[in-house]
Write a structure and sequence with these properties.
The chain is 44% helix and 15% strand. Strand 1 and strand 2 form a beta hairpin. The chain has one domain. The protein has 61 residues and is α+β, with helices and mostly antiparallel strands. Strands 1-2 form a two-stranded antiparallel sheet. The chain is elongated, with a radius of gyration of 12 Å. It contains three helices and two strands. The mean pLDDT is 93. It holds the Pfam family Glrx-like. It comes from Lederbergia lenta. InterPro entries: Glutaredoxin-like (IPR008554), Thioredoxin-like_sf (IPR036249).
Length: 61
């Protein structure tokens, strides 16, 4: 889903393995996947395309 939107909007995707950082494990452990834009939590757990695209558009404008 993110790759599809990346092709359309041209943003970078940064993937982090939460198992490599104890703080991330505590913060995100049961919430993955997590999508943040510029440090702002957009969605976690179940990601829906409509909300994700809406937030990407908001942050790119």
């Amino acid at each position: 889903m993110l790759r599809m939107l990346q092709k359309e909007y041209g943003f970078d995707i940064i993937t982090n393995d939460i198992e490599t950082n104890e703080m991330w494990m505590e913060k995100y452990g049961i919430s993955i996947p997590v999508v943040e834009i510029d440090g702002e939590l957009i969605q976690e757990g179940i990601i829906d395309l409509f909300t994700l695209e809406e937030q990407i558009q908001k942050h790119l404008n």
